[in-house]
């Protein structure tokens, strides 16, 4: 494979972008969009995106090979975790999923191409067209690639030139994805830019902000609040702050013949991306009236995580993160001697930890496959214990009887959850997922209505 040397993030690590360089890059992106992207049809974009996704699924794809070879050092994920995560993401990018997303958010697959009417609009003698921003900026958060991959895909669909800003040392996976687009269609790749710098550089970011039409940002709630104060008043910001996710197992599902499958699903949710995403469960709440008790559930989960560690090992951690996990373990080991909790953990490493804690109050995990199991009486108690973080709960993974799924999901939705899914799918949302409860394409476009 030819040397990957096209984007600003491909420059040597000691190279630093300047305001002048960013300004030139933004102007070039606008020119390239006008020449190579603005007039493409939705059908053309769907075919191109689907082709790129299919190539990522091929074991001999040079970009994929390079990603899996260098990814563990660059990202801190093991090759097995990377392979699983990439397959999960790109396996969900199909022509039908892309069409479904557009129809869900915009009401008509051709909405970005022309003035069109769906059945409801036609009956009211009106039509509408949606357009994306000319230059769309993204601020990425953390090392998980899926949010950035999705942002870039959305930008392609709405025909926006895009400039992706990564934190220092986190651009590897976005850069590899951008190169896969460039190799599939160099002219389309010329409408993308990937760069990295340490956030908070006022001179750089003021220049960058002034060139953008729309900005998406993923990060802590404090980061999003600070951004709102710094950007120009005319710049649209789509921000996604920190979220947490939990699991819920109803007592009817706590029969031995059902529990094994649930345990495997929970272990997968904890293992994918090493439990570092906002969609990863931090606590599994287990009802107390089942045949399998919450404490037994925790023990079974520990056994399953030990199996997953063999199949999909967690990469080694830095000293400070390992020390934090060791400190958490020590605290609960002391409590366990007084019968106040139980703990199971990997021997000789911090690879995984399961804590059964009789207190049902919400508390954040230290992640990296550190999971709490807590007992609850019923769904009402779950919601009461989550009230302190009601506006921060993203996903609730559930295991309930199928006859109760809609009712349970409705209760969770009215309470404030923005996504409910089966356990085992928490870190694998569909492309049509409404991030934080908002339509992903709908937040980015501007509409023009036509009345006949």
Please give a structural write-up.
- The chain has 452 residues and is of the alpha/beta class.
- Helix content is 44%, strand content 17%.
- It has 16 helices and 14 strands.
- Helix 3 runs antiparallel to helix 8 and helix 12 packs across helix 13.
- The radius of gyration is 23 Å and the shape is globular.
- The N and C termini lie far apart (55 Å).
- 42% of the residues are buried.
Task: Based on the model shown, name its key terms.
452 residues, alpha/beta, Aldehyde Dehydrogenase, Chain A, domain 2, 2 domains, 7-stranded mixed sheet, 5-stranded parallel sheet, 16 helices
Helix count, per DSSP?
A: 16
Order of helices and strands: HHHHHHEEHEHHEHEHEEHEHHEEEHEHEE
Q: Unreliable stretches, pLDDT < 50, 5 or more residues?
A: none
Strand content: 15-25%
Q: What is the radius of gyration computed over CA atoms, rounded to a whole number of angstroms? A: 23 Å
- Enter the CATH topology name of the largest domain: Aldehyde Dehydrogenase, Chain A, domain 1
Overall pLDDT metric:
95
Basic shape: globular
Please bin the fraction of helical residues: 40-55%
* DSSP strand count: 14
Summary of the model, kept short:
Helix content is 44%, strand content 17%. It is of the alpha/beta class.
List the helices and strands and how they pair.
Layout: H1 19-36, H2 42-56, H3 62-75, H4 79-91, H5 95-106, H6 119-123, E1 126-131, E2 135-139, H7 146-157, E3 161-166, H8 172-184, H9 186-189, E4 192-196, H10 202-211, E5 214-218, H11 221-230, E6 236-240, E7 244-249, H12 256-271, E8 281-287, H13 294-311, H14 319-337, E9 342-345, E10 353-356, E11 370-376, H15 379-386, E12 393-399, H16 405-415, E13 419-422, E14 446-451
Parallel strand pairs: 2-3, 2-5, 3-4, 5-6, 7-8, 7-12, 8-11, 10-11, 12-13
Antiparallel strand pairs: 1-14, 9-10
Helix pairs in contact: 1-10, 3-8, 12-13
